[in-house]
Amino acid sequence: MTMNERRQPEGVSGQVPDHVPTDAELDAWPVPESAQGYFRRGIRFAQLGFPDRAIKDFEEAAAREPANAEIQYNLGTAHLALGMFEQALRNFDLAIALMPGSSDTYGNRAVAFAALGEPVQSKRDVEQAVRFGADRARLEGIVRFVMARRNMGHGLLETHADGTRDHGHELPHPRWGGFGRTEPPAGT
Question: I need a surface site. Which of 50, 51, 142, 151 has the fewest CB within 10 A?
Fold first, then answer.
């Protein structure tokens, strides 16, 4: 199964939660015992809008299973979400070396290259992503947006007076309000 065909890991819901847990509630979640346990909990953190917590769990999963392409891909995606583009590239490079046919990985690496002002590498990865099944118009639109933000001198993540950072759009996201608390995922 390629990452393009991936399913939700066992025990991970793809639904938007009714509530987002507080930091104290997240800290009380059980500590996983395996790489897959850390991976599943990392996915849940990412779904809830906590990429910093997801990174910690994905790193622990990667330490236990360094040759797992899906873990490397998700670690790169979490780094990308936090604007850590160089680290995202390293993770995407590893994921591609482990599973070269993933359009998602090439697409995300194209976005990271665009964010770093590397249009040649970005275009190359867009072509690879399309070759493996990505939607050209959608991916090129994302890359154009990222490059335009970079070229206009705007950061890709807006830093607010309170130190929080976001992507500057109005899309709903659990970390930015609108949802309450949820229970920890079962089996982590």
Answer: 151
- What's the pTM value of the predicted model, to 2 decimals? 0.74
Write the pLDDT tens digit of every residue in 81-114. Answer: 998 999 999 999 999 999 999 999 999 999 999 9
Q: What single-letter amino acid sits at 179?
A: F
159 strand-pairing partners? 165
- Rounded to 5°, angle at Cα 133 from 129 and 134: 55
Q: What is 17-155's CATH superfamily?
A: Tetratricopeptide repeat domain (1.25.40.10)
pLDDT at position 15, please?
53
* Helix or strand (DSSP H, E) at 166: strand 165-166
Q: How far apart are the first and last CA of the chain?
A: 24
